[in-house]
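Milestone M4 deliverable, item 7.
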Amino acid sequence: MEVIEVTDLRKSYGDTVAVDGVTFTVRAGETFGIVGHNGAGKTTTVECLIGLRRGDAGTVRVLGEDPARRRRALAQRLGVQLQDSSLPERLKVAEALRLFGALYRDAADWRRVMDRWGLRPLARKAFGDLSGGQRQRLMLALALVGDPEVVVLDELTTGLDPIARRETWRLIGELKAAGTTVVLVSHYFDEIEALCDRVAVLARGRVAATGTTGELVARTGTASLEEAYLALEGADR
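Output delivered:
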């Protein structure tokens, strides 16, 4: 079953075309990657997915809803972690989870979420005192405290050291094992290869190709997703 359907999505900012006819679907329970270099249209696509922006043309449906029109209702079923997410510096970890949990009608027990993501030892620690990896773990937990059906993660590991990055990968793997639908947006090709069932390759605001890493590598006759991207991006010029 398809839980996300994007059809011919277009979005411009003045004379700049950010998204130019993007089309893809995401199936229930899969981890779906959106990959591309900076400026490829990833962030605008995500913002349309979660209702922060409305496309100029085309359609977006998430769990059967139009995010631009039904953002508040969809927020009860959708978990989101954006690239620039932050919290007040003095807000403690346990306080953040409790407050976010109160926003949802059918939230998971925030204490269990705290334990699941290994945040119990940090419960009384302020956000401003957390390391980069600890902050990302907390932001991921906050995206999940509403017990969402779909989770959208935008550039989740940007700025993390290799150890924190691998730990974040492990947490995403746990989401996949639990059957949660995950949309993972990244410019790290190794990350998409390691975590995603299928991927949409974005280049200059368009979908250059979709498929598994193996399918894209075979299609381009290359040895990795990054090499496949470069071949697809060059062919699209």
